[in-house]
TrEMBL record:
This is Amino acid ABC transporter. Pfam families: Peripla_BP_6. It comes from the Bacteria. The lineage of its organism: Bacteria, Pseudomonadati, Pseudomonadota, Betaproteobacteria, Rhodocyclales. It comes from Aromatoleum aromaticum (strain DSM 19018 / LMG 30748 / EbN1). Residues 1-19 form the signal peptide.
Amino acid sequence: MKRTLLALALVGFGCSALAQTSVKIGHAGPLTGPISHIGKDGENGARLAIDDANAKGITIGGRKVQFELVGEDDQADPRVATTVAQRLADTGVKGVVGHVTSGASIPASRIYEQAGIPMITPSSTNPKLTLQGYEVTFRVIANDLQQGAAMARHAAQSLQVGKVAIIDDRTAYGQGLADAFADSLKQHGVQVVGREFTTDKATDFTAILTKIKGRQPDALFFGGMDAQAAPMLRQMRQLGIGARFLGGDGVCTSEMIKLAGEAMSADTYCTQAGIPMAKMPGGAQFNERFKERFKTDVQLYAPYSYDATMALIEAMKTAGSAEPQKYLPALQKLDMQGITGTIAFDRNGDIRDGGVTMYRFSDGKWEALN
């Protein structure tokens, strides 16, 4: 009798365990290489969201769900990104947070569209990403057109520069941002006295900077990431170029301050899509919890990765299903309060009312201007 009761208890336990459904959500970004700190930042933001969702004991369609984060390293390389995207699709993920860079997101988005798997990038800002006509592509951050316009307006009106030199790293992100900035400068009557190119692997910019020095720009704008921006700024100062240094969100990192060292000055500015963490609806609490969980500061996109992950989960809850084709309509109509603000998408998949903040280096940190 005791053995029979024990057997029945074990069967009951097994049925209870089977009632819990596992749902995989992917994250893709650079986990190795010069901007791995940014990729890991995004992955940690998604991981914190997964932890929070599992702690709540969420049910979808009447079944308790255990979410699992599947992280992949795309090395910020377009070719690797497509391989990673296919691997995530084959693994059976129900949604993807990523990719981090535009150069990776744009080619990867085709794979997700073919597989019918929604992807939400927390950081890819090239406008082309959401202009491809794909149904499953979304973005929770402002794009390059908004950032370029903001920096051009600040350069012309607040800094009153007359001549600007522009360098970009030839990536989808860097070149897209530089193009948006250059186009916006025309509206303000600012002259572009040089347009140069490098790569996202370069570390020596002496030749380019020497050429630019002779044109005596009032400011130099770099479209790219902190791994190139920092040595570029140091070499600018070594060559005696006193122009203001301007950049986008790829420059707005604590790593930029560490890598550039004494070359950082009050003449260093950057734009960042979104609003300062201290002004985000849930920013202060998120920052505290993030540091406690991962023993490191937020670099850039962790709050946006968190919101992207929660957006996928919220759409699944609303639809009562984790199957992409069933929850996609709910994602398209989503309107939820996130850490960074209201998460709602327009018909292209772009975030509605995406903000941009201007920063200036001051007293050892980035200080929000407006």
